[in-house]
Structures are given as structure tokens and as C-alpha cells.
Write a structure and sequence with these properties.
single chain; mainly alpha; 4 helices
Length: 75
């Protein structure tokens, strides 16, 4: 039973990791205000930003790793 639970937990962790990677990648490639990893201010586009967009801009400002961003999204 212990091995079964551990195996399921590992699979679930991998699926979450892949999902969060996809979400982060999608936001990083589709965000016109984030060019070269640097936040560029655009007032009318700021209204369309969500938590992932904000975390990506903070990632570069505060040297957050991709794993840091994922953990924040999971909490």
C-alpha cells in the first residue's frame, strides 16, 4: 500500500509540475509587457494581468526561481 501511495504521489507531482510549466510558459510567451524577462509598463495592458503575469515580473526583480513561482501558484 505504501508503494502504491508513493507512486501515485510521484505521478501527481509530475502532472502538477508539467501543468504549471505550461501555464508559466504560455504567459511568458504571450505577455507583450514582458520583453526579454524585463517588465515594461503599459497602463492599458496592466488591467489584463493576472497572478502569473505579476509573478513573472517579480521573478526577475527579486531573483525568484521558476520553482519559487510554482510554489507560490500552488499555495
Amino acid at each position: 500500500l505504501r508503494r502504491v501511495v508513493l507512486a501515485r504521489t510521484c505521478r501527481l507531482k509530475k502532472r502538477w509540475d508539467e501543468l504549471l510549466d505550461k501555464i508559466i510558459d504560455d504567459h511568458a510567451t504571450k505577455s507583450p509587457w514582458l520583453v526579454g524577462g524585463v517588465h515594461h509598463q503599459h497602463d492599458e495592458q496592466d488591467q489584463d494581468r493576472d497572478l502569473v503575469d505579476i509573478l513573472l515580473s517579480l521573478q526577475h526583480e527579486y531573483n525568484l526561481t521558476r520553482d519559487n513561482v510554482k510554489v507560490i501558484l500552488m499555495v
